[in-house]
Amino acid sequence: MTKRREIEMLLLTMFAAVPLYLTQTIGVGPIIVFHVVMAGILVRVATGRSPELIPTMIMRGLAIAYIVFYAIDAAVISRSAIAASTHLVLFIATYQPIESVRTHNYAQRLLTTGLIFIASLATATPITLVP
Predict the structure, then answer these.
(1) What is the DSSP letter of 53?
(2) Chain CA centroid to CA 62, Å
C-alpha cells in the first residue's frame, strides 16, 4: 500500500470513532487511548517509517491476552457486551496497521473501520449524532 493510501486509511479509521465521544457507549479513556495510538502510527507512516509503533511480537501477545480480557471486560469492567465489543473492535483497529507490515489486510481494515462507524452510529441515542 502506498504511503498516501496508508495515511488515508488511518485517518478514516480515526474519524470513524469520533462519534463514540458523544454516545457514551464506552468511556472517553479508551477512545483517547485509541486515538493516541493511531496518531502515533500515523506520525510514523507520515515520516516514512513502518506503522509498527508497538513491536509485532508484543502486539500478538496482547491479542492472545485480549481473549481472556474480553470476558473480564464484559463481565466486570464494562458490564456490557456492547461496550466490551466496541473495545475489542478498537483494539483490532490498532492491531491491523501494525500487522499490515507482514500481510496485505486492506479489506479487513476497511471492514473494521466500517464496524467502528456502525458502532458509533448504532449506539447513538439522539438522531442528531447521525449527521
Answers:
(1) S
(2) 14
Asked if residue 122 has pLDDT above 80, the reply is no
The set of cell numbers assigned to 82 is 456492547
Spell 102-112 as b/e; 16+ CB within 10 A means b.
eeebeeebeeb
> Cβ distance 119 to 20 under 8 Å?
yes
Q: What are the tens digits of pLDDT across the range 35-79?
A: 999 999 999 999 988 888 888 889 889 889 988 898 898 889 888
Q: Helix, strand, or coil here: 50?
A: coil
Q: Which amino acid is at 109?
A: R
3-state secondary structure at position 8: helix
Exposure string of 52-90, with b = 16+ CB inside 10 Å and e = fewer, is bbeeeeebeeeeeeeeebbeebbeeebeeeebbbbbbbb
Kindly give, in sequence order, each residue whose CB lies less than 8 Å from that of residue 18, ignoring residues fewer than 6 positions away: 120
Q: Give the cell for residue 16.
A: 470513524
Amino acid at 79: R
The pLDDT value recorded for residue 128 is 62
Taking 90 as the threshold, does the pLDDT of residue 113 lie above it? no
